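User: I'm new to structure prediction. If I give you an amino acid sequence, what do you actually give back? Let's try with this one:
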Amino acid sequence: MLWTTISALAQSKSIKIVGGSAPRGTERRLALVVGNKDYAKPGAGLRNPVNDATDMAQALEELGFTVLRRQNLNRSGLEAAIDEFTEQLTRYEVGLFYFSGHGLAFSGENYLVPTDASLSFETQARSQCVSLRRVLDGMEGANAKVSLVFLDACRNNPFPKSTKGGVSQGLVIPNNPRGSLVAFATRDGRTADDNPGERNGLFTGELLKHLRTPNLGLRAMLDRTIAGVESRSGGHQIPGRYDELRGDFMFVQTAGWPKVTEDRRDPVADNILPSVYSLKTYMPTIGNQGNYGTAVAWAACYVRTIMEARRQGLAGQQSAIDALRFSPTYIFEQVKQVGDKECQLGSLIEPALLVMQRKGAVLLASLPYPSCGADIVAYHAQASRYKIGGFEALSPSSNQTRLSADGLKQALVVSKNAVVIGFQIPRSFMSAGEYWQPEPTESPKSSVGSSALTLIGYDDQKNGGSFLLANSWGKNWGKEGYIWIRYDVLTQYASLAYQIGDPVTPVSEKK
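Assistant: Good question. You get back a string of structure tokens that encode the predicted 3D arrangement of the chain. For your 511 residues, that looks like this:
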């Protein structure tokens, strides 16, 4: 299981979390890379951990890390390596710990298994293994600006079989603090594939494919890794991710690319963001959800069409873009509320995006709308061609209570994808024209409901700075289904925002 913890340690000053554009970046980087393969317990040996560690160490050295390489460590050796690493880390800004081998959980705590462990009964997990807490506490004590832990360590191991049952297969959900991100190679309590037919474990192999990609944030890199693992395992290994991270991290960042800071919602350089930006040229014809609670599904489908039209270079080609409209029915039928036979009770945004990440989307020409109650099982094969790479929630700044307008603009420009917005609807919004401004007596607290909109552009000069959004209430609302909302107004009424990752390559185009 790959388990990733990224912690931007609390400091009074702003912490810049960036990667370098050369083998050694502006911040100093230190990594401890351990591969445990040759276990003393019969049947516990593994094929790939040393390969995993060797390849990971080489990649990290290319990315500017000073790497401490260790292999086949017993308990005392593993503890000594961790202590050496965390002591040296006091002189570095970025620390990374990587372990490939056996890992297990006991009484809610995760443990790394050294090569000399025998584990005849459950309490020996504490005496024979090394708690991951030793690593995390040591890295925190070193006061590194960025702490990363990659743990590819939840192979199906033989140790729990000889215990009384207190040791779990797989690892457990980490209690990761605010400002961190934890990613599992597979869901908590499950085991990951050592991938014995190839050089690397399944998760590490996918991670290595994307680690060196320039200007790719950590979340986006993990999105691609997760999609690759799920695809190659035929859906048997589905990674989990637990995101409390406030900033992001790039392993490779080229000159001119927007810097990534601890508060990645604020602009880092004003001259990087254009004054006008729009994805409208890739938008399908505005749809009408009618009396159904399908706004979230419509917004998600707009985003997916924009991504596909952009990928195919169809700017302004309306008929070709409309041929790539996706069916809200396929999404909604998988996320609607229990008992919603009339399809009118709405849905949450994140489950809808999870459907597109894990299962994909279906063309509207194949599954018409509306089709409330439709059996969508037969459409899963087509949907798998149109998965998204992932998504992430955009959060307010640490000292703010609302979303940052500049953060939303940056999300559009950097990803080149539309953003799904959860929006509180006041009464005046129902009859809005080309521009919308709430009435003086209105506020988010007085809203009559909520809906989902698709953020597709902005203009710094329009009405003092406004966002362009698409709705699914037909072309008679707003201006042919679109509306402009001032920056300060949108951030006041927007309760949620999600940035979408690049699409997974369609099956028919894979080589």
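You can read the tokens as a compact description of the fold. Here is one thing that stands out. Residues 295-311 form the longest helix (17 residues).
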